[in-house]
């Protein structure tokens, strides 16, 4: 079937509506029972500039004008990742196996090469049509992640409260929404570097230049999308340093599923149970102050045994696996 692809340089309301239509249909079909993003969420994601590069967007239609697929290509510009691109591709389930996915993939691969990229990565859920689609291409599985979910209506509230109430001599907790307080922002930037920049599953992570300016700009992106970024940090009482932190992003409507973002403990402060403490304190805060939030979802590489154990101890249960595929674009 003949298809037409538009590069969306400044997406219109109608184009954003069509994008949302494809995305929700694909997610509803491939991940039944999972929440789908609202049209406002999708518009904010597509139109808010990224802190780590720029994004190219394509929308595919059939001859009747119906939207049949989308592709978003992230071109990173950070040191160590300037040769990397990341792709999100969705095909409408009612129009699959008609060539839209292949055409969008070829378009994105060509654009990545034209922009000097040597590697392209993308993620899909194991066992879905997207997984089978990529397995037949030249992509190589690079990193498998297990997604875990904590439902508040079935968690052990008393156990969470006990962990959150533990005493950790030499440390205290600070919590903030949005941008880190001025007194902590430089230390928070240093702690951000503890997430590491080495390869993960052979995928280069690069060097993210975390400083106060970068922290502010990254935090402001969530605000522009209407999302709420909440951080709990462990502070060393001796010197006021940020010893570790955990971040959670709450949807714009303050309801449903919150997403766990980074959790990290600075190397010199590890071995004191700070990760578990911070995460339990975050859960206690969310359940007390945001009654519309019903669950938290997070992901871990299977070889990250320490964080897997922490999440399991807090009541997170595995719900699905995703795999990151890598395509070499080197000639």
UniProtKB/TrEMBL annotation:
<dbReference type="InterPro" id="IPR050832">
    <property type="entry name" value="Bact_Acetyltransf"/>
</dbReference>
<feature type="domain" description="N-acetyltransferase">
    <location>
        <begin position="3"/>
        <end position="191"/>
    </location>
</feature>
<dbReference type="InterPro" id="IPR016181">
    <property type="entry name" value="Acyl_CoA_acyltransferase"/>
</dbReference>
<keyword id="KW-0808">Transferase</keyword>
<dbReference type="Pfam" id="PF00583">
    <property type="entry name" value="Acetyltransf_1"/>
</dbReference>
<keyword id="KW-0012">Acyltransferase</keyword>
<protein>
    <submittedName>
        <fullName>GNAT family N-acetyltransferase</fullName>
        <ecNumber>2.3.1.-</ecNumber>
    </submittedName>
</protein>
<dbReference type="InterPro" id="IPR000182">
    <property type="entry name" value="GNAT_dom"/>
</dbReference>
<dbReference type="GO" id="GO:0016746">
    <property type="term" value="F:acyltransferase activity"/>
</dbReference>
């Amino acid at each position: 079937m003949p298809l037409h692809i538009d590069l969306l340089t400044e997406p219109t309301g109608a184009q954003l509506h069509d994008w949302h239509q494809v995305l929700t249909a694909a997610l509803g079909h491939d991940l039944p029972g999972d929440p789908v993003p609202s049209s406002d969420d999708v518009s904010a994601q597509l139109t808010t500039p990224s802190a780590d590069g720029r994004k190219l967007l394509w929308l595919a239609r059939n001859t009747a004008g119906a939207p049949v697929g989308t592709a978003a290509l992230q071109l990173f510009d950070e040191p160590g990742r300037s040769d990397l691109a990341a792709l999100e591709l969705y095909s409408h389930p009612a129009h699959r196996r008609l060539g839209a996915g292949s055409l969008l993939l070829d378009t994105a691969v060509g654009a990545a090469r034209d922009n000097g990229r040597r590697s392209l990565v993308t993620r899909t859920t194991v066992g879905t049509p997207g997984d089978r689609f990529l397995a037949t291409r030249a992509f190589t599985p690079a990193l498998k992640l297990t997604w875990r979910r904590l439902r508040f209506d079935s968690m052990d509230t008393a156990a969470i409260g006990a962990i959150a109430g533990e005493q950790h001599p030499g440390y205290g907790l600070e919590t903030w929404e949005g941008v880190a307080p001025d007194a902590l922002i430089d230390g928070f930037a240093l702690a951000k570097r503890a997430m590491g920049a080495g390869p993960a599953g052979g995928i280069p992570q690069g060097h993210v230049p975390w400083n106060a300016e970068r922290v502010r700009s990254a935090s402001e992106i969530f605000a522009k999308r209407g999302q709420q970024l909440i951080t709990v940090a462990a502070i060393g009482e001796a010197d006021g340093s940020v010893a570790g932190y955990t971040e959670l992003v709450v949807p714009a409507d303050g309801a449903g599923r919150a997403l766990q973002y980074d959790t990290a403990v600075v190397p010199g402060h590890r071995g004191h149970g700070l990760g578990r403490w911070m995460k339990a304190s975050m859960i206690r805060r969310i359940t007390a102050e945001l009654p519309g939030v019903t669950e938290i979802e997070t992901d871990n590489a299977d070889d990250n045994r320490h964080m897997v154990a922490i999440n399991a101890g807090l009541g997170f249960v595995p719900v699905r696996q995703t795999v990151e595929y890598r395509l070499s674009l080197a000639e």
